[in-house]
Amino acid sequence: MMRTFKRLAAATIIAAILATGCGSAKPASQTQTQAPAAPQAAQTQKPASTVAPTVEPAPVDVAAAQGKAKYVFLFIGDGMGYPQINTAEILAKQISAPGTIGVERMEFTKFENSGSVTTFDAESFCPDSASTGTAMASGNKTLGGVINMDVTKTEKFTIISELAKDAGYKVGVISSVSLDHATPACFYAKQASRGDYYDIGLQLVNSSFDFFGGGGFLQPKGKDGDKEDLIAIAKTNGFAVPETNDEIMALSGDSGKVLAISPVLADAQSLPYELDRIRNGVDSLSLAQYVQKGIDVLDNEDGFFLMTEGGKIDWACHANDAASAMYDTLSLNEAVQVAVDFAQKHPAETLVLVTGDHETGGLTIGFAATGYSTFFEKTLSQNMSFIEFDATYVKSMRDNSATFEDAMAEISKVFGLVPPESGDESNAGMTLTDGEYKKLQDAYALSMIPSTDRNYDESQSILYGTYEPLSVTCTHILNNKAGIGWTSYAHTGVPIPVFAYGEKAGIFGGSYDNTDIFKKLTKVMELL
What is the pLDDT of residue 48? Predict the structure, then answer.
C-alpha cells in the first residue's frame, strides 16, 4: 500500500490545489517561523540534579540475542508516539477512501515484534530530545539539553555508533532536520548544551563516520559568523560534499566519506515538510531516497549501522499541526520500507528497529466538541504546512495590511474553512461556527502585529504558544473539527512504541526503558 501512497497523496493534494487556486505558492526556502530549536523541557527552572535516576535493566532473552546483526537500521520518529502512528494510518485510509472508518497499516506496524519504552530523563517525566537521544545512543540518563554527558556535564559517555565503528561497521546518520539538531547529534557528538550548534557540527566534520545526509547546519560559521566554515572543514577532512540532487543520487560505495546536505532546505536548515514537498513538487529528495543513498554508500561485507530521524514529526506536533505530522510520519514509513527491502535481500543479517524518542503535543484522537464522532477526512482539506502558510500568506498579509476578509479567503484556500453564512452548502462540514470565526478574528488581529510587539496575557499564551496566532488557530480549528485534540506545545511523558524486524528482532519485545535500546543493540551487534 505504501508504494502507492505518494501517487494517492499527490493526486488528492493536487486536486485540492487546482480547485482552490493556491498551487502557485512557493516553498518557504530558508524562512523560519518559530521552529522549535530547543524544547521547553530543556528550559525548566527546576534545580539540576547531580544524580542520574536508577533504572532497573530489562531482562534479556539470551537465546534470542545469540548471533549477530550485521546490517542495523535504527529509525527514530522524533515526537512519534502511538497517537502519531495511529493518526497517520487513519490519514492513509482517508486518502484512498475518505470517510471510511479504518486504517491503512504502515510497514513498520506490521512487524511481528513490538514493545514499549519509558522515556523520562534525569530531571523530568517530560524529556527533551537530547536526553532521550542520549539514553538510546549511550544507555544512560542525563539532563534535558545535554548530549551524551552525565548530569554533572563532566563525564562523556561511549555511544553505540562509536562502538560500531570500532568493531568494523560503517556508520551513517540521516535526519530530516538540521544535522546538528539534538537527535542526530546524539549519534556522533558529546556536548554539554544542545544549543552549541557550531561545536556539535565540528564534531561531525571531524568524525570518522562514513555518511551524513539530510538537513544542513544551523551555525555553519559559528553563532557570530566568524568561525571556519564547517563545509570547508569537511572537505579538508576527506568528505565528499555533493551539491546537487544528481550528485547525491550518483553516490555509491566508491564515494568515500560523504556529507550529503539537501540542496533544497526549508525552515531551520531542514528538509521541507512532506505535505509541502508533495504539493509543491519541490525538487527535494525524500527521506526514503536518503536512506537508499545511505545504503549505497555504507554497504560492505563488514556491515553498517544507520540511524535515520524523521525530525519534523516533532516540529509539526510542537505547532499542533496534525496534517503535517501525519504526512511526515508516512514519509518515515516510506524510508523504513527501503530498509525492509534491503533486509529481505539479507534476511539472516539485517535488523530494522523503529521507535520514537518521546511524544510531542499530547496528540489525541477525540475532542470534547465532537464527542464520540470523528471526521478525519476533513484533514485532507489542508494543503500546506503551518510554516509554509506563515511564510507564504501571513507575512504577506502583515506586510500589505490585508483585511480580515482577505485573510479569510486565503484560509479557505489552504485549510478549507469557510465563514458562517457563506452559502456554501456543499462544504457545510467545514463551515465555521460563530465562536470559531471569532477566534480567527482575534488571532488575525494579533498576527498583524510584529511578533516583537505582541504582549500576551496568560490565556493567549496557552492559545498560541510561541507560534503565529493565525496559523495555529487555523490548525486547531481544523483538527478539532476532525475530532483531533492537543494538550501541549511541548513534549509529554507517555511510553513510546518500539517495532523490530529481522535478525534478533525478538529481543526488542516487551516493556522496558529507553536506555535498554542501547543495551539490546550492543548485544545483537556483539559490541560489548
Answer: 52
